[in-house]
Design brief:
The protein has about 170 residues and is α/β, with parallel strands linked by helices. The protein is about 30% helix and about 15% strand. The protein is built from four helices and five strands. The chain has a five-stranded parallel beta sheet, with helices on both faces. The longest helix has 19 residues. The chain is globular.
Length: about 170
């Protein structure tokens, strides 16, 4: 799965069966001697984010760095970002969430392969920016079933349409 060409995936992502991630078509694969080096995984406190992190670890090659990226933002109050709230408090909360997610997913043997990055900003824009230094970006789908499940969420859509690297969307379990 990780033998993917460095290329924008805008309009190239295809849905594959629910048991497998959405990915590039086979025509976009690299040769066996080319490997990924940096795999970013967009995480939050959801089961689908945990599934995406697990997928990235399971498919990373030895020596690849897996970076769990958690994006946080100041909550708006009355349509404005409140200046009376301490951003450090929200950043530390995001950092703890990221630590908890990684601790839930990563085994002791894998711990040295995973790093955590916490970024302030809008989720899709921040993940796209972080993707500039990555070979692959992995995200969990938001987990809707039926007809609604055919439509990606706004963050996923933004990332897929603007990412500077290949994107894999890991579907939820049924």
């Amino acid at each position: 799965w990780l033998h993917l060409r460095r290329a924008s995936l805008a309009a190239s992502v295809t849905k594959v069966p629910r048991t497998r991630p959405w990915s590039l078509p086979n025509s976009a694969r690299l040769t066996d001697n080319e490997v990924m080096e940096t795999i970013l995984v967009g995480i939050d406190d959801s089961p689908n984010a945990r599934r995406a992190l697990r997928w990235a670890l399971d498919h990373a090659h030895e020596g690849d760095e897996v970076v769990a990226v958690h994006v946080w933002h100041m909550p708006p109050v009355g349509g404005f970002e409140p200046t009376f709230l301490d951003p450090a408090m929200f950043e530390e909360g995001a950092r703890q969430t990221a630590r908890d997610v990684v601790a839930d997913v990563v085994t002791d043997d894998e711990a040295d392969r995973v790093s955590i990055r916490v970024v302030g900003g809008h989720a899709s824009g921040s993940l796209v920016d972080e993707g500039r230094s990555a070979d692959l970006l992995v995200m969990g789908a938001r987990g809707r079933g039926g007809f609604a499940g055919l439509v990606l969420g706004s963050v996923t859509t933004g990332v897929v349409n603007h990412a500077p690297c290949p994107v894999v969307i890991v579907p939820p379990t049924d």
